[in-house]
UniProtKB/TrEMBL annotation, chains A, B:
Native source organism of the sequence: Paenibacillus validus
Catalytic activity, EC: 3.4.17.19
InterPro entries: Peptidase_M32_Taq
Keyword RNA-binding assigned: no
UniProt-recorded name of the protein: Metal-dependent carboxypeptidase
SUPFAM superfamilies hit by this protein: Metalloproteases ('zincins'), catalytic domain (SSF55486)
Cofactor note: Binds 1 zinc ion per subunit.
Active-site residue list: E252
CDD domains: M32_Taq
Residue sites binding Zn(2+) per the record: H251, H255, E281
Enzyme class: hydrolase
Keyword tags: Carboxypeptidase, Hydrolase, Metal-binding, Metalloprotease, Protease, Zinc
Length: 487, 487
């Protein structure tokens, strides 16, 4: 089954990075065939018999801790999958595979209508699946649980509510501040080759292993861990923005460090992946924001940036670049958003996904609903759907329930960063010396190596000594932006 | 089964074009798993029952001609495969997958010893398989038949004997000629980007469809038809040789035109591929040599070449370039060989393969045997194994019996070219006007569209009105080189 997953992962990577268009329809059939077979194996009588055998008390008692975890993961997946008719599942896989290609074109043309029929089918099939799986409280809970086990609408309403309570007044204070960073120098023309070279340099500094990965270019950046020896990332290069590709690369690089450093003992098992999307996002966002957007980072790497773009930053000080890079500005595009307003982008998607699954919003309403919520939450309105409702790849793949992980990731990241800072005797000092490898080692040791053999909750308890606590993120944001905006 | 083949094809393409090294071992497991499953399907009771059903006289009579051909292809494959234990087959696939990576490193380091154990296992397993399949006359016949149905050692000894009889005196006459082309201008420094751009330009002229393919860079150029909408080719760029990448590209482009133009009605069937390796090679070599190395071609495209390499060919006439490009010179590397001596490179490999399977040569002897034969046939001796016995990828994949296809391809190509010339009213005139598309259309119409639904013999009869006749190649070579060398 892991072999099938790896093959399918490679096909998806290829479809996104450069597969010829005319071959896509047939390739989608291939994905459908392999996914169907994978699914049949996962719900086979053979799998059922294996699970029965290993769950018998006598046999179960003899398993190692890791093997017991493997069995329970397989059992959970088995029970979940048994409820979907294999034929329907295969149709769903073909659908989402075609939808992703359709989305890419729709986004380019800002043409929601061409994507709408795909999205309607995807949402309808998710409703159908939720009814088969069952749900408690809110239909959307069943989807949330897939990405962050145990997460519910009730909890998210609470956590996001608390976060919003703190972020909104902080945002107001920032917007009222006269100390706005000058960002004009970020918007010059930057050659793609130079952007790529600098991105590769920073990846190397982070300890990304190029013998176990590669960097490519796609419309929407992503990381894919095919096995720990092959963890690929992508970014996109904007010709007039020095930061977009760089922070995209660091973000995906954070995901990749996680996957590259999973213990080789877990290869070929269902535990050879990140423990949850929230913890995964905590790592991408830790590297992107906590490290990459820190003053310490730019005190060390700003001269490298200057050298990579000769003449383009001669009159800009490191401190000015740091402040510009942390400009807070409500905007339209999630992946370009600053750390603070980012959470509001997530809340828009969270509200919409909730509404799609309690039936209060239809797919055909999405462009309008999207634009309204952007006005309400962020005070900005897309001029076309390409920079609005079509901006993210996620829904084309049916990944409803995924978005909240980003905000959870911010919270986990802030909490983990606090412990790391204490245990390594000051993260800033290390970063300022360009010593990022001890940080990668610490995270590998505490988090990455375990893959999915520990739960998110076990990880966060083991590393920080307490359950998820959103106050660390609030504290971090307040300290950082009070300083930058001299509040 | 076609879906599995397509997935495996993509994995191989990826392993050769840029997969991270550390992921290869695990990827080989994936290939082994999928190939094993493909093999199990091909020999399954279900397949047996399908074949029995469709071979029943009542049912068979109702099938279309194409469907009957599908059934007979599956039956042939089924009977062949049934004789190999699935476990042994899977081991073989894993072995050849690892061997290919080992070969690439061994070739780089000119280190035969590191590759020898892989090759010994591959040869031993082929012996084992031949014993299971059975053979008539010579063990090697069984392997030859896989690439060119019906081909035998007896026939090849005869055909190659006849060819050698004509080629050797022609070669002597050429070497004695005082009219040797000046080739000095071919050996300058050529930027990779310019080489790539010119290669892409010529591919476009040939009618290669970039929406159904792409060009990448590998150690050993190849073409892979994943489906007619995704036919990828690779080449390699030598910094000091203007022709290597170009003719590699045209060669693989010829293979690709074949695969891109197979009728879409055959997609998803076992007939959606070239009919034999010999016919496939006839197309790559037709485009590379008959078209690409013709005087008419350079009368049309030489000015484009000059423009792609500004200043580098200012003082060279088109005719001089044409003659240089057709220099006859015994050399070490097959894929760099001229049209005439190329056949001698094939004969070396043919003799060695024969000997490996009648037991007269051992794998450990290969470097020595190789070097001896190169001295005997071509009068040159490799200075290291990287430019000797390790130069070709084929054996690492277990493709014994494949090499003769190249020489067969030359013969088919010459015969087909004669008919094409007559039917289109002069190929040279079209080429001299840059009208390559009518040639592609004619070949698509006569050959490509049929895929494997006609046999090689049916194709050559249908197109040229007679069976394979090597005299066309001899005639073509004599006319071309008598002119160039003023014999």
């Amino acid at each position: 089954m892991k072999s099938y997953e790896e093959a399918i992962g490679l096909i998806y990577w290829d479809m996104r990075t450069g597969a010829p268009k005319k071959g896509i329809a047939q390739r989608s059939e291939v994905v459908g065939e392999l996914s169907g077979e994978l699914f049949r194996m996962s719900v086979s009588d053979e799998m059922g018999a294996f699970l029965d055998y290993f769950l018998q008390e006598d046999n179960h008692g003899q398993l190692s801790r890791t093997d017991r975890k493997i069995v329970s993961e397989c059992k959970k997946e088995f029970d979940r999958s048994k409820k979907i008719p294999p034929q329907r599942y295969q149709e769903y896989v073909v659908l989402t595979s075609q939808a992703e290609a359709a989305w890419e074109e729709a986004k380019d043309k800002a043409d929601f209508a061409s994507f709408q029929p795909y999205l309607e089918k995807i949402v309808a099939m998710n409703h159908e699946f939720i009814d088969l799986w069952g749900y408690e409280g809110h239909k959307y809970n069943t989807l949330l649980d897939m990405y962050e086990p145990g997460m519910t609408v009730a909890k998210l309403d609470q956590v996001f509510g608390a976060l919003r309570e703190q972020v909104v007044p902080l945002l107001s204070a920032i917007q009222a501040s006269p100390h706005r960073p000058d960002t004009s120098f970020l918007k010059q023309q930057f050659e793609k080759e130079k952007q790529k070279k600098f991105s590769l340099f920073i990846l190397e500094q982070m300890g990304y292993d190029f013998a176990a990965g590669r960097l490519d270019e796609t419309v929407h950046p992503f990381a894919t861990g095919l096995n720990p020896g092959d963890v690929r990332i992508t970014t996109r290069y904007l010709p007039d923005d020095v930061n977009s590709a760089l922070f995209g690369t660091i973000h995906e690089g954070g995901h990749a460090l996680y996957e590259q450093n999973i213990s080789l003992e877990l290869v070929g098992t269902p535990l050879c992946t990140g423990t949850s999307m929230g913890i995964h996002e905590s790592q991408s966002r830790f590297w992107e924001n906590t490290i990459g957007r820190s003053r310490a980072f730019w005190s060390r790497y700003y001269s490298d940036l200057q050298q990579h773009y000769p003449g383009q930053f001669d009159r800009v000080e490191a401190e000015a670049f740091y402040r510009a890079t942390n400009e807070v500005k409500p905007s339209l595009i999630r992946i370009e958003a600053d750390e603070l307003t980012y959470n509001l982008h997530i809340m828009v998607r969270y509200e919409i996904e909730k509404a799609l699954f309690d039936g209060s919003v239809r797919v055909s309403d999405l462009p309008e609903v999207w634009n309204e919520k952007y006005r309400d939450y962020l005070g900005v309105v897309p001029s076309h759907n390409g920079e609005g409702v079509l901006q993210d790849v996620h829904w084309s793949g049916g990944a409803f329930g995924y978005f909240p992980s980003y905000a959870l990731g911010n919270m986990y990241a802030a909490q983990i960063a606090r412990t790391l800072d204490r245990e390594l005797g000051g993260t800033d000092a290390l970063v300022a010396e360009g010593r990022l490898l001890p940080i990668k080692e610490w995270l590998s040791d505490k988090i990455y190596q375990y893959g999915k053999s520990l739960t998110p909750s076990e990880i966060i308890m083991q590393v920080t000594g307490e359950e998820l606590n959103p106050s660390y993120l609030v504290e971090y944001l307040r300290a950082k932006y009070s300083d930058i905006y001299k509040l």
